[in-house]
């Protein structure tokens, strides 16, 4: 790479990194998320370093094998997927690209973007890695280990950044050049994410386990990290891994430069496709219905409610980026999903039916009903003045979750029958899922009225969305747990539900009072727990099932009234 590209790229990277830092510190939510991430990674690194230094284990009995190499390669694959997503959605172009690309070459701008992305990753992981590297160097008695560990991690991150830019820019270029892909970019993006998991299932069907990832050369950087320590390593693996990574950094950067030049300076079919998709049939009397295509919204609560429902569905379909927050809770399940796909862990099949019964109401209401005021955007004044009756608006907001959630909820009893449950259990699962959809559909808009969000959040360059607040998401999750998960739990596992209730009352609730010295209250709670454990199983099953469902329907009716009053009394 010419030194001119590198010098210019460093200056661009510094500007991009400062802009990212300023954006993160200007938003309280992003600042809290950044602090939480640093606290988690830093805390884990500190604990690990503490045990390394205080215990001073004998490292000579350890050796880098395929298991460690595959673990490093797996983390690199995950980082590459994360960088690919960021490039495809957020950092595909530099800020003020029309100005920047008239002053520097595209290659220089690309180097700046890649260095800025690497700097962001180092800002998150730099301190924890340095702490662990210092502790390992101290334990090994080798200062060179500190440099080797830090350098190996940096090389792995750099390779992931280059890989992410190659894949992300390739995806953006295909969207810009191929009309068929541009029309279906949201669907294809979802399929690509599914393919990421499906690839591991293919590996499992071929008989490979996690250790099979040890053939990825990036995993051989583990040998580089411990070359100067007593840990056993393979010098050929270290040399070959380092050589392959360096070669990929050079070749991948050159490929990125070509992709970026073609994407930034070439023509794009995306504007024409977006204009084509925005056009609805003018020969019909219902442009909203024409825009929805094959999706038909019934007029069960009158035409005003139907119009509100149609617009909610249309907004969700045309701005799928705002639904990405629904995927965030699944991030914590990623490692488990991979282990399951590789056959190294298993999920009890009897959890599938109740899990589906809980997931359907959560996703159905979360996709449409949690931020009605923010979804209205600039037309909120017109909406407030055009609908005199808030009842029609609330019903219209509840209609999309019902339209999509109720049919999806019927999958839960089918899964229950397929996973060994009896007909009675399947009926109970179906009832919990169906009632849960109804409850979530009417409680969701109320939560959106109580804790609305009207300020936009940028998810990509030049694109802003208005997702629900974290408070609304948390309360929505609590509603689903109370009125769907609990009755399903009591119906399918009454003995376990009874034992859990006794532990919560007599253990978790009583513990703070024991700690504070308020023994009478703690003893009363333990007595209540013993009474709970003594409740007959039929009473636990049917009472624990019917009680939350009836309470949920009552809460839904009350929530609909609150939402109607909030809408009718809302002022700008």
Give the arrangement of secondary structure elements.
Blueprint (H helix, E strand, L loop, with lengths): L2 H24 L1 H28 L10 H24 L7 H4 L5 H35 L2 H35 L1 H5 L1 H21 L15 H5 L9 H31 L4 H9 L8 H6 L10 H16 L9 H4 L2 H8 L10 H17 L3 H5 L3 H7 L3 H20 L1 H8 L4 H28 L6 E4 L2 E3 L4 H23 L1 H15 L1 H7 L2 H15 L3 H33 L3
Antiparallel strand pairs: 1-2
Describe this structure in words.
Keywords: Membrane, Transmembrane, Transmembrane helix. The chain crosses the membrane at residues 31-53, 59-83, 121-140, 146-175, 187-206, 238-260, 323-342, 351-373, 393-419, 426-450, 470-493, 500-522, 542-563. This is ABC-2 type transport system permease protein. With 572 residues, the chain is mainly alpha-helical. Helix content is 76%, strand content 1%. It has helices spanning 3-26, 28-55, 66-89, 97-100, 106-140, 143-177, 179-183, 185-205, 221-225, 235-265, 270-278, 287-292, 303-318, 328-331, 334-341, 352-368, 372-376, 380-386, 390-409, 411-418, 423-450, 470-492, 494-508, 510-516, 519-533, 537-569, and strands at 457-460, 463-465. A two-stranded antiparallel ribbon has the order 1-2. A hairpin with a 2-residue loop joins β1 (457-460) and β2. α22 (470-492) packs antiparallel against α26.
């Amino acid at each position: 790479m010419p030194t001119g590209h590198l010098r210019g790229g460093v200056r661009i990277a510094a500007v991009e990194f400062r802009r990212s830092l300023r954006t993160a510190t200007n938003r309280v939510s992003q600042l809290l998320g950044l602090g939480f991430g640093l606290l988690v990674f830093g805390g884990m690194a500190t604990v690990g370093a503490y045990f390394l230094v205080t215990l001073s284990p004998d490292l000579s009995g350890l050796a880098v094998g395929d298991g460690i190499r595959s673990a490093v390669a797996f983390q690199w694959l995950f980082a590459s997927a994360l960088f690919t997503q960021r490039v495809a959605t957020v950092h595909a172009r530099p800020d003020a690209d029309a100005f920047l690309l008239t002053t520097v070459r595209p290659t220089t701008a690309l180097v700046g973007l890649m260095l800025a992305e690497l700097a962001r990753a180092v800002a998150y992981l730099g301190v924890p890695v340095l702490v662990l590297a210092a502790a390992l160097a101290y334990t090994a008695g080798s200062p060179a280990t500190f440099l080797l560990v830090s350098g190996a991690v940096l090389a792995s991150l750099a390779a992931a950044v280059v890989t992410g830019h190659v894949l992300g820019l390739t995806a953006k270029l295909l969207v810009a050049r191929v009309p068929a892909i541009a029309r279906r970019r949201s669907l294809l993006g979802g399929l690509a994410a599914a393919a990421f998991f499906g690839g591991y299932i293919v590996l499992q069907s071929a008989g490979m386990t996690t250790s099979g990832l040890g053939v990825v050369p990036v995993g051989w950087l583990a040998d580089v990290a411990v070359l100067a320590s007593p840990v056993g390593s393979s010098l050929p693996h270290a040399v070959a891994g380092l050589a392959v990574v360096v070669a990929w950094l050079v070749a991948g950067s050159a490929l990125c430069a070509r992709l970026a030049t073609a994407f930034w300076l070439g023509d794009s079919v995306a504007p024409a496709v977006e204009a084509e998709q925005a056009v609805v049939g003018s020969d019909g009397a219902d442009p909203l219905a024409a825009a929805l295509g094959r999706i038909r919204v019934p007029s069960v609560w009158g035409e005003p409610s139907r119009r509100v429902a149609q617009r909610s569905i249309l907004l969700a379909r045309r701005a799928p980026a705002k639904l990405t927050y629904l995927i965030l809770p699944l991030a914590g399940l990623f490692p488990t999903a991979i282990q399951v796909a590789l056959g190294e862990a298993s999920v009890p099949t009897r959890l599938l039916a109740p899990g589906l019964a809980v997931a359907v109401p959560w996703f159905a209401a979360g996709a449409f009903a949690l931020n009605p005021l923010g979804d209205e955007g600039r037309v909120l004044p017109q909406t407030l003045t055009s609908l005199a009756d808030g009842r029609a608006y609330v019903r219209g907001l509840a209609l999309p979750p019902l339209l999509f959630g109720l049919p999806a909820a019927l999958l839960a009893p089918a899964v229950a029958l397929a996973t060994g449950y009896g007909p009675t259990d399947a009926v109970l699962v179906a009832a919990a899922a169906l009632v849960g959809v109804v409850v979530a559909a009417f409680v969701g808009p109320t939560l959106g009225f109580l804790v609305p969000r009207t300020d936009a959040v940028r998810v990509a360059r030049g694109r802003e969305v208005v997702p629900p607040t974290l408070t609304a998401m948390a309360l929505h999750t609590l509603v689903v747990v109370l009125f769907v998960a609990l009755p399903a739990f009591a119906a399918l596992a009454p003995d376990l539900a009874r034992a859990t209730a006794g532990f919560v009352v007599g253990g978790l609730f009583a513990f703070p009072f024991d700690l504070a010295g308020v023994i009478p209250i703690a003893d009363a709670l333990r007595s209540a727990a013993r009474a709970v454990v003594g409740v007959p199983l039929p009473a636990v099953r049917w009472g624990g099932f019917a009680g939350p469902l009836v309470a949920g329907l009552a809460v839904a009716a009350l929530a609909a009234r609150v939402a109607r009053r909030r809408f009718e009394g809302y002022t700008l």
